Amino acid sequence: MAVAARVNQTKYDIFRWRYELSIPKKLALAVAMAALTGLLAQVRFALPWTPVPITGQTFAVLLAGVLLGRWWGGVSMAIYGGLGWAGVPWFTGWTAGVTATGGYVIGFVLAALFLGHFVDKYVRSRSFLSMLGLMLVADFVLVFVPGLIWLGAWLNAAAKPVASLGSLLAMGLAPFIAGDVIKVVAAAGIARAATPKSAYNTENDAQKWKTWRLP
């Protein structure tokens, strides 16, 4: 019990510390998370029928909002995308610039903002099942929808229009489902283990969490 209490207190102290950091320090953490996303983007597997590769960067995206909070998680992904578009070569394959995957990068920002909002405002969201559901929405709705829209527009602009919605899904969604589910489950497990199950901010459910069991 003493060890568990110490672990829980440590998690609380870390998240409270993160919440109270000065803006320059939060910005430094956001840049570090952007750099981690760039590193994980190099874990990639190219597919011959699509310009969208399988990468590891989604894992960092899912954890950005959890670890940095509702605004700075989004800022970290905006830094990743903005600097990458401006010329910093930390996109997949150490590339830079606006590419066919630009919509997914926009989705990274939305996903981090979405997850960070729930983690910061609701203690209940930090359970495994809650995080699993939220991360599935963040990944398959907030990342893939803008990603598919951008990909379709990019191919049309390049005079390579897709024949149907099914063809677009085969290029921009279907090959990634299994891998993303695995990343979501792993990220939800890490989020469940890393986040405090007590209020460190002005959470909306701060007075209710003690009566809940958080699986």
Mind explaining what this structure looks like?
The protein is mostly helical. The chain has a single domain, classed as Orthogonal Bundle (Arp2/3 complex 21 kDa subunit ARPC3), CATH 1.10.1760. The chain contains eight helices and two strands; from the N terminus they run H-H-E-E-H-H-H-H-H-H. The chain has helices at residues 2-20, 23-40, 57-68, 72-86, 102-121, 128-157, 165-172, 177-194; strands at 44-45, 54-55. Strands 1-2 form a two-stranded antiparallel sheet. Strand 1 (44-45) and strand 2 (54-55) form a beta hairpin. Helix 2 (23-40) crosses helix 4, helix 3 (57-68) packs across helix 4 (72-86) and helix 5 runs antiparallel to helix 6 (128-157). The protein is elongated, with a radius of gyration of 18 Å. The protein starts with a helix and ends in a 21-residue tail after the last helix. The model has no long low-confidence stretch (mean pLDDT 88).
Describe this protein with a few key phrases:
215 residues, 65% helix, mainly alpha, elongated
Main sheet: strands, sense, barrel: 2 strands, antiparallel
Taken as a percent bin, the fraction of beta residues is under 5%
CA gyration radius, whole angstroms:
18 Å
Shape assignment: elongated
The total beta strand count reads 2
Low-confidence stretches: none
Assign the structural class, choosing from mainly alpha, mainly beta, alpha/beta, alpha+beta, or little secondary structure: mainly alpha
Name of the CATH class: Mainly Alpha
Average pLDDT: 88
Treating each run of at least 4 consecutive H or I residues as one helix, how many helices? 8
Number of domains: 1
Indicate the percent of residues in helices.
55-70%
Second rung of CATH, namely the architecture: Orthogonal Bundle
Cα distance spanning the termini:
18 Å
Reading the helices and strands in chain order gives HHEEHHHHHH
Task: Give the spatial strand order of the biggest sheet.
Answer: 1-2
| CATH domain fold name | Arp2/3 complex 21 kDa subunit ARPC3
